Structures are given as structure tokens and as C-alpha cells.
């Protein structure tokens, strides 16, 4: 999708392990020159996970758009803490949700991120591709969980990649995982391509690695390319 006012290219893809799955992603524009990217993964698969995923996704949307009225409570860390409280109050102990929530401020040229257990995102510049190592407790697991944030300056040409663990933990026929190291290699080799082609390269690499082995988890990948 091309969002001219925000000056980014964005592409995403989702491949459920069954007919429906527990992964979800969204990209929202609550304010001018602001884009929120949220990628989540609910424990389990199939219809129960999909229903819980839909509920978590609506919580994300609600707390994102209230940013206009409650900016002091709309930082990534605050959003994760708020959603954690609601999910924990629902007392669905067998379910939890990992979620990476990122605010891209294209006017100030910064991105701020908080993570509650999703695999570390990839930040790819002209010189390196690295993981944004920001741990966090999955949402709904414990009451009162708090979350850390990290802020980075944005530069033209940078690529950010958000994936659920179905990518890095995809197994081949020998039970070996794809790993985040291979993900970094794929992104590094394709970082000059459009966002949609980077997503395609990730899914192609995972498919080649998996071979004839059936998918063991849902897979989601979201790629954001910063333009001039």
C-alpha cells in the first residue's frame, strides 16, 4: 500500500497453518504523518485462536484511535499495558497474546516500539541488518505487566520487518527451524527491493526451507520501507 502523506511503502502477508489462525496485523493512521504498525500472535491455532485474535485486534484499534484524545496514554508501552490488563481480566488463562506495537512519526522522523514477546523485529539500514532486541511478557499472562520502549531515528531507505514466530520457527522435514539468522540473511539480500517483494522473498525462503513438511504455525510478515 502507498501512503503518500506518510512517505512509506508497506506490504504484508499472512499464511495460516489451518483454515483460520491466530495471527493478526494492522497498520493505522490515527493522526497526520503518523502510522501505527501492530503485529500480534495468539497462542493456539484454528477457530478459538482466531476469535481471540479478533478481540485482541479490536483492542489494538480502539487504543490506537483514542490517541487523538488521550496522547499521554497512547505510547506503545501504555497501549500494551492497557491491553494486557483487559486480556488478563477476561481470565482466559489458556490463551495469551504476543504483540509488537510500533508508532512511526514521519514528521519527526522517529519510530517508537514496544514488544510483548513477538520475535524481535528486523531493522535494516544501508550498512547493517539487526534485530531490535526488546523483550516483554506476553499479554494476558500476568496482571500489572509493564513494557519497555525503544526509539530510533528514521532514515530514507531503511527497512523494518515484523514477523510472527511461524517464520523463524518454521520447521523442515528434519525438525530444524528456519531461525531469525536466516530471516536476517533474506532481508539483507532483498532490502533494496520494494516492500512487497521483500515479503515475497521471506515467504519463498521459508517455503524452500520447509520443503514437503506441513506448516507448524501461522506465518505473518509485515515490511515497512521508509522513503525520502
Description:
The chain has 228 residues and is of the alpha+beta class. Helices cover 29% and strands 29% of the residues. It is globular and about 50 Å long. Mean pLDDT is 90; it is low at 1-6.
List keywords for this structure.
5 helices, globular, disordered N terminus, 5-stranded antiparallel beta sheet, 6-stranded antiparallel beta sheet, 228 residues, alpha+beta
Tell me the total number of β-strands: 11
> What best-fitting shape do the alpha-carbon axes yield?
globular
Percentage of β-strand residues = 25-35%
Largest sheet strand order: 1-2-11-10-7-8
Major beta sheet, specifics?
A: 6 strands, antiparallel
Residue share in helices?
Answer: 25-40%
Order of helices and strands: EEEEHHEEEEEEHHHE
Put the structure in a nutshell.
The protein has 228 residues and is α+β, with helices and mostly antiparallel strands.
Question: How is the secondary structure organized here?
Answer:
Layout (H helix, E strand, L loop, with lengths): L1 E2 L4 E8 L7 E9 L2 E9 L3 H20 L10 H14 L7 E9 L4 E6 L6 E3 L4 E3 L17 E5 L5 E5 L1 H4 L10 H12 L4 H16 L8 E8 L2
Antiparallel strand pairs: 1-2, 2-11, 3-4, 4-5, 5-6, 6-9, 7-8, 7-10, 10-11
Amino acid at each position: 500500500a502507498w501512503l503518500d502523506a506518510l512517505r512509506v511503502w508497506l506490504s504484508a502477508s499472512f499464511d495460516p497453518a489451518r483454515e483460520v489462525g491466530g495471527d493478526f496485523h494492522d497498520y493505522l493512521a490515527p493522526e497526520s504523518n503518523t502510522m501505527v504498525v501492530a503485529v500480534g500472535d495468539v497462542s493456539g491455532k484454528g477457530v478459538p485462536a482466531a476469535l481471540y485474535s479478533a478481540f485482541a485486534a479490536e483492542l489494538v484499534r480502539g487504543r490506537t484511535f483514542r490517541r487523538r484524545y488521550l496522547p499521554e496514554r497512547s505510547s506503545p508501552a501504555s497501549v500494551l499495558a492497557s491491553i494486557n490488563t483487559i486480556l488478563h481480566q477476561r481470565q482466559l488463562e489458556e490463551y495469551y497474546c504476543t504483540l509488537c506495537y510500533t508508532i512511526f512519526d514521519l514528521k519527526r522522523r522517529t519510530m517508537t516500539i514496544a514488544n510483548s514477546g513477538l520475535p524481535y523485529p528486523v531493522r535494516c539500514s544501508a550498512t547493517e541488518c539487526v534485530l531490535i532486541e526488546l523483550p516483554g511478557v506476553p499479554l494476558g499472562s500476568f496482571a500489572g505487566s509493564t513494557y519497555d520502549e525503544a526509539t530510533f531515528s528514521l532514515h530514507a531507505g531503511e527497512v523494518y520487518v515484523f514477523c510472527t514466530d511461524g517464520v523463524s520457527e518454521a520447521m523442515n522435514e528434519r525438525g530444524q527451524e528456519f531461525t531469525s539468522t536466516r530471516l536476517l540473511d533474506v532481508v539483507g539480500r532483498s532490502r533494496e527491493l520494494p516492500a512487497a517483494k521483500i515479503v515475497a522473498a521471506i515467504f519463498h525462503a521459508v517455503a524452500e526451507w520447509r520443503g514437503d513438511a506441513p506448516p507448524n504455525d501461522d506465518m505473518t510478515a509485515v515490511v515497512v520501507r521508509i522513503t525520502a
